What does this fold into?
Amino acid sequence: MVKIAPSLLAANILELKSEIQIIEDAGAHWLHIDVMDGHFVPNITFGPDYVKAINNLSNLTLDVHLMIENPELYIPKFAENGADIITVHYESAIHLHRVVQMIKSYDIKAGVAINPATNVENLRYILNEVDMILIMSVNPGFGGQKFIKEAVEKIKHLKSMLPSEKDVEIQIDGGVNGENASELISAGATSLVAGSYIFKSIDKRKAIESLMN
Ligand code: DX5
Ligand code: ZN
It folds into this structure.
């Protein structure tokens, strides 16, 4: 079954506790936490302390998406503070293989994300090492942007590259909504990140259900 990962970037920060409770009750599987440093992307968000606070609050899988330069400097802190999955960008990790090994050394799952203009073929020699590939369907940095439709083709391409014996999650992030979810799942996505679509909905439960069906 597809895993729904609401992005807390779109949640009301002043009501974070109840926002998390609502989506947890509604059947969300993971909590997607977008970490931005103002360098790799033109926005600044949360740090390791935020992850620690959320970890004390929720039992959901904490899916931490690092949109930062020099991710190797911060992976230890995010891992110690409760991240269950850490995803780094292909474009920001110069020694990607080493960075992936570093994440795995904390006994948590390792993901690699690619920007909209990055070819999935670039991931061929890291696929055996990762637990998840995140295909960005917007340019990273902000919630509420329009879905870039080439992402569908990229999911299919990636799926055809995956070794059959290995279980690798295919996550899609950016502009996901009730309209494009089924096409993304049919193409091969196993995890959908959705920020605005869920948190700006009046009925968050219904929004989550519509992504799953
Ligand atoms: C964008 C982030 C996304 C973002 C998605 O850089 O990685 O996780 O929160 O937000 P929506 O679903 O609103 O596009
Ligand atoms: Zn994200």
User: Anything to note?
Assistant: The first helix runs from residue 16 to 25. DSSP finds eight helices and eight strands in the chain. The pocket of D-xylitol-5-phosphate (ligand 1) is lined by residues 7, 9-10, 32, 34, 65, 138, 140-141, 143-145, 173-176, 193-197 (CB under 6 Å).
